């Protein structure tokens, strides 16, 4: 059986200049304000192949051409990459409609490394051995506080700093659908749990390689109803054994597959509720089946979860 859901990702930049840093290294930073980026196609390609990493380098340039999905580099880069950014996983917040997890990367360039009128900025989410200015994950034009394109002048005596915040919109909408197990139709309800857990829903947990670790196994119950509480922190019953767990790419999505042998998952009777765990063993999502799955030692089960990612 197959179950699908989509997640959203976005981000924004803040560019700062420490004026006359050569003579005053403790000078206040002049920040440009927050401006949104475009997550490039390259990010999604690397996410699908499991090649995103949560360290980062940033790049700036003078190109003012509008951003486009298929771009992989800045139009007119100057100054080379920033120093390796520090990364801080932020607490999950509720913004009125969605629960958002995020990571903020902060980096700087050496004094005088960037000189010119900046119009563009980009980031490469990379490990320290892969500094690649032609393989960026996002790009943005510099704008003023009201969203108008503007240049940021940087002199030889100035020091450039930048922040980039990558945001992940946790999918909280209840998904309902129908599937079939062993020729028997059943309705399922997929719900999100434990939204405030960094281990379950932090950006590193869901966007790094691989994004949905299921090696800790599931939890199953023959009595649990729909929990209907995205902040719920517990699972159903104990962790179950499983023979095969794997990842693949299916039509632009990451597919996580449980392959359950006839001897597994039979200890509770018909499966009414299944809790998906993150790599930390904390509840991430729950699936309610109606009628329950009549799993016993004469039946195998293959359960596919297809995770799509799109621009939020």
List the helices and strands and how they pair.
Layout: E1 2-18, E2 29-36, E3 38-39, H1 41-48, E4 56-61, E5 77-78, E6 86-94, E7 99-108, E8 116-118, E9 120-125, E10 138-141, E11 152-154, E12 159-170, E13 175-181, E14 184-192, H2 198-201, H3 203-207, E15 219-221, E16 244-250, E17 253-260, E18 271-277, E19 283-293, E20 301-311
Parallel strand pairs: 1-20
Antiparallel strand pairs: 1-2, 1-12, 3-10, 4-5, 4-9, 6-7, 7-12, 8-11, 9-10, 13-14, 14-19, 15-18, 16-17, 17-20, 18-19
Could you characterize what this model shows?
The chain has 312 residues and is mostly beta strands. Strands 1, 2, 6, 7, 12, 16, 17 and 20 form an eight-stranded mixed β-sheet that branches. Strands 3-10-9-4-5 form a five-stranded antiparallel β-sheet. The two termini are 28 Å apart.
């Amino acid at each position: 059986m197959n179950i699908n859901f989509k997640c959203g990702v976005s981000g924004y930049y803040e560019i700062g200049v420490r004026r006359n840093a050569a003579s005053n290294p403790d000078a206040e930073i002049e920040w440009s304000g927050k401006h949104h980026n475009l997550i490039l196609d390259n990010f999604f390609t690397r996410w699908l192949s499991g090649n995103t990493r949560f360290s980062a380098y940033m790049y700036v340039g003078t190109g003012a051409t509008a951003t486009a999905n298929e771009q992989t580099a800045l139009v007119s880069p100057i100054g080379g990459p920033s120093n390796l950014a520090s990364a801080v996983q932020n607490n999950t917040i509720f913004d009125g409609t969605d629960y958002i997890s995020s990571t903020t990367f902060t980096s700087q360039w050496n004094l005088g490394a960037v000189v010119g009128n900046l119009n563009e900025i980009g980031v490469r989410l990379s490990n320290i051995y892969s500094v690649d200015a032609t393989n960026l994950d996002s790009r943005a034009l510099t704008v003023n506080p009201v969203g108008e394109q503007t240049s940021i002048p940087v002199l030889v005596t100035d020091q450039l700093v930048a922040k980039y915040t990558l945001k992940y919109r946790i999918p909280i909408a209840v998904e309902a659908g129908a599937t079939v197990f062993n020729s028997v139709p059943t309705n399922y309800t997929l719900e999100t749990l434990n939204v405030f857990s960094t281990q379950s829903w932090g950006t590193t947990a869901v966007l790094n390689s691989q994004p949905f670790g299921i090696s800790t196994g599931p939890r199953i119950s023959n009595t649990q109803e729909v929990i209907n509480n995205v902040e719920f922190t517990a699972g159903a019953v104990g962790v179950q054994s499983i023979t095969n767990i794997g990842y693949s790419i299916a039509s632009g999505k990451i597919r996580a597959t449980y392959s359950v042998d006839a001897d597994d998952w039979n200890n509770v009777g018909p499966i009414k509720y299944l809790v998906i765990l993150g790599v930390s063993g904390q509840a991430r999502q729950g699936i309610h089946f109606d009628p329950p799955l009549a799993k016993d030692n004469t039946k195998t089960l293959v359960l596919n979860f297809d995770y799509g990612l799109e621009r939020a």
